[in-house]
Amino acid sequence: MRSVVVGLTGQTGAGKSTISEYAGSLGCAVVDADKVAGEALTRGSDCLKRLAEIFGYDIIDSDGFCRRNILAERAFASRENTDLLNSITHPHIIDRCREYIEELMHMDYDVILFDAPQLFESGGDKLCDSVITVIADRDIRLDRIIKRDNMNLKDALLRINAQHDEEYYTKHSDYIIDGGKPVELVREDFRKILYDIKNNPKGR
After folding, report:
1. Phi/psi zone of residue 64: left (φ > 0), alpha (ψ -120 to 50 degrees), beta?
2. Are strands 111-115 and 29-32 parallel, antiparallel or unpaired?
3. What is the pLDDT of residues 163-197, one digit of tens each?
4. Among candidate residues 125, 126, 130, the one with its CA nearest the CA of residue 111
5. CATH class of domain segment(s) 4-198
6. Cys bridge to 133: 152, 169, 190, 195, which one at CB 3.0-4.6 A?
7. What is the pTM of this model?
């Protein structure tokens, strides 16, 4: 039987990682777009070279590695810059994620979870049969990313404000999970959704 591909998305700090990490314990394969994005920014990659042309060659250090903090500061300074970043990185990321998903299709997984913060913006939702969006109050998300990324308030606000509002994600999704709830309740909601997806595959 063909694997069901489930997209997982939402604003930064909403709680996607809680679900993504838990999914593996339930037997799901997980494709993490953030990790694939890291591959796109490896030393010498075409993607990194193109980003340097746009955002400045000093985003690459003397050893050829990406200075991600500098890149992020410039890319998230405005919606225009963020869109420019995405237009360069998304094709590389989605092509590689598609390859990973196709490989996993031959490994007898019932569900492949495609964890992608920019699932809709990149067109990655077209790879999915169903999409789950994780939401959480803005203050919760702000507090989480400050602690998670050791980020100051100014940079955290830049990161949050560079993203679409909550409705953008929810209106395109098949399921919604409140990631601001206690972890066990979030996991319970995901288990219920996973059961529904397996027994009532929607297709998009």
Report:
1. left
2. parallel
3. 899 999 999 999 999 999 999 999 999 999 999 99
4. 130
5. alpha beta
6. 169
7. 0.86
